Amino acid sequence: MFPLEQHILRALDGSVRSLARLITRIENSPDEARQIVKQVYHQGGHAHVVGITGPPGSGKSSLVTELAKAIRKRSLTVAIIAVDPTSPFTGGALLGDRVRMRDLSGDKGVFIRSMASRGQLGGLAQATGAVVQLLDAAGYDVILVETVGAGQAEVDIAAAAHTTLVIEAPGMGDDVQSIKAGILEIADILVVNKADRPGVERTVNALRSMLQLGPTGGTRHHGRIVQNHVTLEEQDPDAWQIPVHKTSATTGTGIAELVDLITRHARHLRDTSQWLEREKQRGQKELEVLLFDHFLRRFRSELPVEYEQQIIEAIARRELDPYSAIDQLLAQTNQ
Ligand SMILES: Nc1nc2c(ncn2[C@@H]2O[C@H](COP(=O)(O)OP(=O)(O)OP(=O)(O)O)[C@@H](O)[C@H]2O)c(=O)[nH]1
Ligand SMILES: [Mg+2]
Questions:
Q1: What is the DSSP letter of 110?
Q2: Can you give the pLDDT at residue 119?
Q3: Residue 82 CA: which ligand 1 atom is closest?
Q4: Which CATH superfamily hosts domain 4-293?
Q5: What are the residue boundaries of the structural domains of the chain, listed by start?
Q6: CA dist 43 to 86, 118, 135, 165, 206, Å?
Q7: 328: CA distance to ligand 2 center in Å?
Q8: 334, exposed or middle or buried, with CB in 10 Å at 0-12, 13-18, 19+?
Q9: For ligand 1, which residues put their CB under 6 angstroms from it?
Q10: Considering the entire predicted model, what is its pTM?
Q11: Are 94 and 82 in contact (CB under 8 A)?
Q12: Taking residues 76-103, what's their average pLDDT?
């Protein structure tokens, strides 16, 4: 086995094998993840990171596959990370994705990897963040990160992107209830996939009204959705019009236009200096995840396991409230 440094050098030099090995090590060891990111971080900063989230079965993986093909046609390289927080194993549910993404295999300009939860809280977000840094440093132009939009962790992962796509499909609950408002909040581009199916317009309209977009559309200004009540001339040029875009991953309808929208969003961020703002948001999220993990681990390493258990039991028996518990724990660890 090569030492970590060798793999890093090889991965940055284009070795897909070493890249894959490093990702496994990131997944298995937060300490190695830290070493890897420390060494590669300064080489990154070129990739356009695109998060793709939405309810199960809305067609994210199919869409990601088609997007990757369309991006390759523009002579850009693509890395795909499919994050499955619901499964502790890679494989299984992702087997279908492998079949779907088979069209992409053999293309050296595409790297595909699925990541599954290893059980620890925050662990997956942390590992995904590290993998994105590594792929960026390895030189991929576009990094597509697919997550199921089921919980906060997934939303966080998708939101740690420059551009976030929220995917919906017709017939998944006519009122688009399967999409939670919190998920819409993070969308830069709303995609109604399966446009070859009946009920597309209804879903498009439902999304528009959920966002309170109104006929002129909604805008995102410095990361916040603003309702339009001003005329086009009055509009802040920094504001981004959140498009509701129809695609079909099956027929290919709307895919090239979706790549155009993704590219246009990146250009918009750069033209309005919001790119740096997104980078700051990404940095902040990453810091929060790392700090959380760091303090939790430090805290636990300083406490006997039984002590934490005793506290938890005392809380459960209502002998101790959680806030007083924190006071006691902090007193124990001198923090
Ligand atoms: N008719 C139609 N079917 C589609 C389209 N896109 C995806 N599908 C089908 O929808 C099903 C789910 O597609 P996936 O791409 O696995 O969806 P996903 O959102 O990645 O699913 P999870 O990862 O399990 O959340 C598959 O049977 C696809 O073939 C589309 O545009 N039109
Ligand atoms: Mg999928």
A1: E
A2: 55
A3: 23
A4: P-loop containing nucleotide triphosphate hydrolases (3.40.50.300)
A5: 4-293, 303-333
A6: 32, 28, 10, 26, 43
A7: 44
A8: exposed
A9: 56-62, 96, 148, 193-194, 196-197, 248-250
A10: 0.85
A11: yes
A12: 68
